[in-house]
Design goal:
The complex is a heterodimer. By secondary structure, chain A is α/β, with parallel strands linked by helices. Chain A is built from 8 helices and 6 strands, in the order αββββααβαβαααα. Chain A has helices spanning 14-21, 83-89, 102-113, 123-136, 149-154, 171-177, 188-206, 214-217; strands spanning 35-43, 53-62, 65-67, 72-75, 117-120, 146-148. Chain A is globular. Chain B is an alpha+beta fold. The termini of chain B are far apart. Classes of the chains: A alpha/beta, B alpha+beta. The A-B interface holds A 57, 59, 64-69, 71, 73, 157-158, 160-163, 176-177, 179, 181, 183-184, 187, 189-190, 193, 197, 200-201, 204, 207-210 and B 1, 3-9, 11, 31-40, 61, 104, 106, 109, 415, 418-419, 424, 426-429, 457, 460-461, 522-523, 525.
């Protein structure tokens, strides 16, 4: 790749412009009128540079409701393949599930999420994976705001010396804690669904503080 | 488009009528169009007179209650797999009832436009819906009558069973698990089967037809008396012929039949004669359960439960019983004893069922302790679970393995309790927390540490630990720990001072002008916190005062005060007033909780009558007096 090309303002493809334009509309402030996109990615591993996304799953949450037909689930063709991770997500390199190219996956994802706030468990990881993929196709990083359910959970804990807050809470741990069925765990969409329910449950705990606004959740 | 979630939805739907009657492709098509809704406890799904939604609903997780708003009567509670909100599907009318999340729930909304053609096409589905929509049930928790919408005869759980009009319409619930033997089975085997299945009667079948029945009574009259040896065959002692009925019989009919023939079990067959296949058996117990609530019946029902989730409807019945008692003005001492017994029985059953799930029996003896209000037999409503586990001492090398075993068990139990309606403890004070699941030796070290270093946290921790109740397992372990605690406390009397100080730390119930002090912020702004402002000062005072007399066997707050009155005749009056106040406040809180389906902790003062407010305030004077006594007794003012 010619490095100096990047210095110039790159000409961005239409689908990106379309995506970027969605941010020109102002976002609602209250939870009731906000649509959240809860997403999860399955990857070949945990390395931001070497590993690749194999699948992206997402559901939209609007007024505490998830419409099944508005879900997003795609599998991505990748040359990189991690044997270790395959044991967890079970996606085969040459499996029978229809797959799309990484660029097409990104196109579809951007048009799906638009300017909506992204919810994910350990959100940084998923967002970084997507951003790395965008960068491979010479695209800027995601512009969306995001909420990490692992961090959000910590806000529900009592402030007490009796509780030692952990640094991280795994999705499994929280699913158990909130009594969420772990069916379809380790498929991107299954995890997205679990995260969505988790998000709603945490939110209902947090709502005990009145007038919860979006900005109380971000950070 | 088919996706992971739609498959998940389809997987759930296919287990429940009417969806189990759909073919796979229809089910998949339907599942793709479902919306999944999360509802917080108490939030409304639709209300009376509201225009019909374009969906009908199915409970996926949690429970939904259907109300008649005008009378505030719960008409039905829909559990997992129940459908509701059928009115727009069937009648194209506005809703007649209000549907509210009875607890935190996940609900599937099924689009009517898509479902209606399927219902019209498929007769089985259509009939199920019509039946669901039109039938009437007296028992909202009846398994065979799920998801009813009809509101003509609202159920009032506060009424005693006998006051509820008997209807001939409801068919009896019966057990479909038929336990049987052959005429050649020996009596010993018969008795073994009956014991292991925990049943009072067994059918004797020949070629699948009922030829006789053996009940506990037969074993008593014919074996116990020595008339036949236990090696004799079933044929010798069975009562024959069997009295049979068709399965469509109603509760009243079943009751009549039992009374008429003086028998306790009825056999239901396909066509109602002895010449057709057996379909079920109805016991007096089943009839009584259908008829209503009674502690003895409930205890029996709890002990028979094989799956934790089946305890939940029983817990609903316990709540019904509780509100009936409160309505009937039964003394709080008796109410709390009965309800605590029932709650204990439920917990015990959860521990037992969890033990069955473990692959091996426990490596050493253990005791499951209920702490806090449950430990004091003061927990009437579903509140948080506070519990701990003590296991017997093991060799040093075996400790990690043993701890792992009991932690695993505790996780199962706490999850079971959670499924049953006990929230997890927000401070994680539960046996599933490694800090609360220790060997006796570790507990001794831990409690010694609290007693020797009594900071604020230690006092809080130890105060919970002085009120416990062995729900399951070896009481000796708990006793030994108490002995140890008392021994340590004697050596470090300064501990009492800290405990007493802790007892005075709670916010006072009234301000300078004797007005109620309400919460300043949070969800319960402007509400009165009856737990921490009124009940806890009493509980804490009773505990420290009685402990200073070195008495540990009494856990209940009002009983503690009664004992104190006995021990200190000069303070008799104030202690008896406290005992009364503790009971009155508990009753108050329980009533509030039942009314609002909450823990009853926070009270909206505007909702109280003048008389109720007066009653509350009267207890505050007592609280003030006892706090002064504690402060004086332990000379806290000079500290």
């Amino acid at each position: 790749m010619f490095k100096f090309f990047k210095k110039n303002t790159p000409i961005l493809p239409d689908f990106w412009t379309l995506y970027a334009n969605t941010f020109k509309t102002t976002m609602p402030e209250d939870l009731e009128s906000t649509t959240f996109i809860v997403l999860d990615t399955e990857t070949t591993g945990f390395d931001y540079t070497d590993d690749r996304m194999l699948s992206i799953g997402a559901v939209a949450v609007y007024q505490q409701t998830i419409a099944v037909n508005k879900g997003f689930e795609i599998y991505i063709k990748q040359e990189v393949y991690g044997k270790e991770a395959a044991k967890i997500h079970g996606i085969l390199k040459h499996g029978t599930i229809p797959k799309v190219s990484e660029l097409d996956a990104l196109k579809m994802l951007l048009s799906y999420i638009g300017n909506k706030t992204i919810i994910a468990h350990h959100a940084i990881f998923d967002i970084q994976m997507i951003n790395k993929a965008l960068a491979r196709h010479h695209l800027p990083a995601l512009k969306n705001k995001h909420i990490d359910t692992s961090q959000l959970y910590k806000k529900t804990l009592l402030k007490s010396n009796l509780i030692t807050k952990k640094e991280h809470y795994s999705l499994d741990e929280l699913a158990d804690k909130f009594n969420i069925s772990k069916k379809d765990r380790h498929t991107a969409m299954g995890d997205a669904y679990i995260t969505a329910i988790l998000f709603l449950k945490i939110l209902s705990k947090l709502k005990e503080k009145k007038n919860l606004r979006i900005k109380d959740l971000l950070d | 488009m088919k996706n992971t979630i739609s498959q998940r939805v389809a997987d759930f739907l296919k287990n429940y009528p009417p969806f189990n009657g759909l073919n796979t492709s229809d089910l998949e098509r339907l599942s793709e169009q479902v919306s999944i809704i999360y509802k917080e406890k108490g939030s409304v799904i639709f209300t009376e007179k509201e225009e019909g939604h374009s969906f009908f609903y199915l409970v996926h997780k949690g429970a939904v209650s259907l109300y008649k708003k005008t009378t505030n009567d719960i008409v039905d509670i829909c559990d997992e797999g129940d459908i509701f909100g059928l009115r727009p599907l069937m009648a194209n009318e506005n809703y007649e009832l209000e549907a509210k999340a009875h607890e935190e729930s996940i609900i599937y909304a099924i689009p009517i436009a898509l479902f209606k053609p399927l219902a019209l096409e498929n007769k089985v589905i259509g009939n199920f819906l019509i039946e669901s929509f039109a039938s009437n049930t007296r028992n909202p928790y009846s398994k065979s009558h799920r998801g009813k919408l009809y509101s003509e005869a609202p159920i009032d759980p506060s009424k005693e069973a006998s006051e509820i009009p008997l209807t001939d319409l409801q068919s009896v619930q019966f057990s479909k698990n038929i336990v049987s033997c052959s005429p050649a089975t020996t009596i010993k085997q018969v008795a073994e089967i009956m014991t292991s299945k925990n049943i009072g009667a067994i059918l004797v079948l020949e070629d699948k037809l009922p030829i006789g029945i053996i009940t506990d009574k037969d074993l008593r009259n014919k074996i116990g008396t020595g008339m036949f040896p236990i090696t004799a065959t079933a044929a010798k002692i069975m009562t024959s012929p069997v009295i049979t009925y068709p399965k469509s019989m109603t509760i009243t009919q079943a009751q009549m039949a039992m009374m008429k023939s003086g028998i306790s079990h009825l056999c239901l067959t396909k066509d109602g004669t002895v010449n057709s296949k057996v379909v079920g058996i109805v016991s007096k117990h089943d009839v009584m359960v259908s008829l209503g609530n009674n502690p003895a019946v409930l205890i029996k029902a709890i002990k028979r439960v094989k799956k934790i989730k089946h305890l939940k409807p029983i817990r609903h019945s316990i709540m019904g019983l509780l509100s009936g008692y409160l309505e009937g003005n039964i003394p709080m001492t008796i109410i709390s004893k009965i309800i605590a017994e029932l709650n204990d029985a439920c917990m015990k059953q959860v521990v037992e069922l969890s033990l069955e799930k473990m692959s091996t029996p426990p490596p050493v003896k253990f005791a499951w302790l209920a702490l806090g209000s449950q430990g004091r037999s003061e927990q009437m409503l579903h509140t948080d679970q506070d519990n701990a586990l003590i296991f017997g001492d093991v060799e040093e090398e075996a400790l990690p393995k043993t701890t792992t075993y009991f932690l695993k068990l505790s996780k199962l139990v706490t999850k079971g309790l959670h499924d049953m309606g006990y929230e997890y403890c927000p401070a994680d004070m539960m046996a599933s927390n490694p800090k609360w699941c220790l060997s006796l030796k570790e507990w001794k070290e831990m409690t010694s540490h609290w007693i020797i270093n009594p900071g604020i946290d230690e006092v809080l921790l130890s105060s919970i630990f002085f009120d416990y109740n062995v729900v399951y397992g070896e009481p000796k372990l708990a006793n030994e720990l108490s002995e140890h605690i008392f021994y340590s406390v004697k050596k470090y009397p300064i501990f009492f001072l800290h405990l007493a100080k802790g007892a005075l730390q709670n916010p006072s119930p009234t301000g300078f002008f004797r007005q109620f002090l309400v919460e300043q912020d949070g969800d319960h702004k402007d509400e009165f916190d009856v737990k921490s402002r009124a009940l806890r000062p009493l509980t804490d005072a009773a505990r420290v005062l009685l402990l200073s007399h070195h008495i540990k066997a009494i856990n209940n707050t009002s009983e503690r005060f009664e004992k104190l009155a006995e021990l200190e005749p000069n303070n008799k009056e104030i202690y008896l007033a406290c005992s009364y106040a503790a009971k009155a406040l508990l009753k108050f809180r329980t009533k509030q909780g039942i009314q609002n389906n909450s823990s009853g902790r926070f009270i909206d003062l505007n909702s109280l009558s003048k008389e109720e407010k007066m009653k509350l305030k009267r207890t505050f004077k007592t609280i003030k007096d006892i706090q002064e006594l504690v402060s004086h007794r332990f000379q806290l003012k000079s500290m």
